[in-house]
Amino acid sequence: MIQKSILQKILAILARATIRKYKPKIIGITGSVGKTSTREAVFAVLSKKYRVRQAEKNYNNEIGFPLAILGIPHCGRNIFGWLYGLIRANRRIVWRSPYPEALVLEYGMDRPGDMDYLLSIAKPDIAVVTAIGDIPVHVEFFKDIEELIMEKAKLVVALPAGGLAVLNHDDFAVYGMKDKTKARVITFGTEEHSDIKTTNYKLQIIKDNQGNDIPDGVSFKIEYQGNMMPARFKNTFGMPQVYSAAAAAAVGIALGLNLVEISEALASFNPISGRLRLLDGIKNSWILDDTYNAAPESMRLALDTLRVLPGKRKIAVLGDMLEIGKYSEQAHRAVGDQAAKFVDLLFCVGPRAKFIADAAQQSGRASPHEMGREAGHALLQIFKFGDSESAGKTLDPMIREGDLILVKGSQSMRMEKVVEEIMAHPEKAGELLVRQDKNWKRK
Known about the structure:
37% of the residues lie in helices and 21% in strands. By secondary structure, it is α/β, with parallel strands linked by helices.
């Protein structure tokens, strides 16, 4: 294997040279939640008019970021694969070849200085900041929340005067970044004064053969300068997707697309695995699969979605939220307080999730005997597990027809294993779930 530090330097040099040669329009996306869904939505919109490339998978760090620019895959421990990819990238610099007109890149960061490094490779023409929330993910590695916000704001600061900052009007920390740039600012959100405003958010419900209500997706409208366009997503739910669509509309408008073109692009946009997607569960149940990752803000939104969707019982299978440091107990207790208001069965996975269970237990709704109540009771049943596999196997026989089950947790909790255990068609796991490649399956 090529030493990581050497590989990192080589990739950075090649990525800088590639950008200097081809001068693509760079759309940079950052935030604590919603980056990948927004990247996918922006890609879908821009593909209507431009040759555009987005990062594969979650390529947003010191190795993955330049790979997205170079258009070569991550080769793991395969030294020959790396050499072949580096030769290809070098040839593209020496001899001109077709290259995207626009790059949609995630600027991910874990620690102070990460944003500076990514900006040293590629500065954006358009910066999109999705959401940060009250307790952002990765705050564990910063002195405080304000320091993390300042690090993310560097993406906006780096914009040229002729650039564009696309900011979430509904997120106080993000909206405050408008004062940190000389570039033009366009905001999106549900607030009245958002430049691009989403309205008329509605759940789409259909009836099954027995007359039961079945969630089918969401519809909403996007307003801009007095004009309005409809949008609809199937098999996915919640406000995160709406915010992603609004941000993508802002980028599309900035790059010359009209609302009709944007609406058509969003109609064909299929939100990606593990982001509030609805899957068939065993025994005619439904799974709200939000297993891609978890942060306090995305957990809050996911539980809000579970609350409003139809289901005979509401079940939440929630894993640890990682990388929030000293805020961990506070954040997990807030999740327990929220879930206890409406959830029927609460499965808590991991050492930090014990705070979810503790808060829910103190709500006054919890059953004094976790498994000793008869079916149909109105009390909350709480279960604790050390790993996702155990949670899935325990939940399996407890599921009933009409149940709606939210599954969510941080990446390393591997909550997709719960979904695989209870999904109606596990043979489709490779197609429908996150982290199904060989490297992840071995972990």
